[in-house]
Amino acid sequence: MNVNDILNTPSASTSSTEVSRGNDFGSLKTEDFMQILIAELSNQDPLEPMDNEQILNQVQAINEVNATQSLVETLGNLSLSQGLGSASNLIGKEITAEVGGVEVSGIVDRAEVEDGEVFVSFGDQRVPLSSVTGVSDPVAESDDAEAGDDLETDLLV
What we know:
Pfam families: FlgD. Required for flagellar hook formation. May act as a scaffolding protein. The chain is of the alpha+beta class. Helix content is 53%, strand content 20%. It is rod-shaped, with a radius of gyration of 29 Å.
């Protein structure tokens, strides 16, 4: 029996039926694959039963899909954590960013995540981390200016 035959039967779940209409198997979960396998086994021709190797191959494929989904989720979380860590390191730093074609700059006072994207904020300006084009240490600039003043004073004496 074909998987599409099972998905199109009246006993198939609503989510499986919706998936078969859109041909989008990416949204299927492990439980959906197990239901399909059970339905396939239940509806198989008793005179031509499914080979054990075929069943094992399908179970292995289900496990691979589950492992891949877990890996994708873990990598997404890791990437988000790294982005938030990078953004939090910008707190107290002066950044330059391009937002909507306009260059903005300010000293970062917050780092946050919303809808899977990392943002840094200064004042009332909120900037995606991916839009940051430059970072500087505002304290270091004022120290350099003071050092330059001292140098001028030393040269004049």
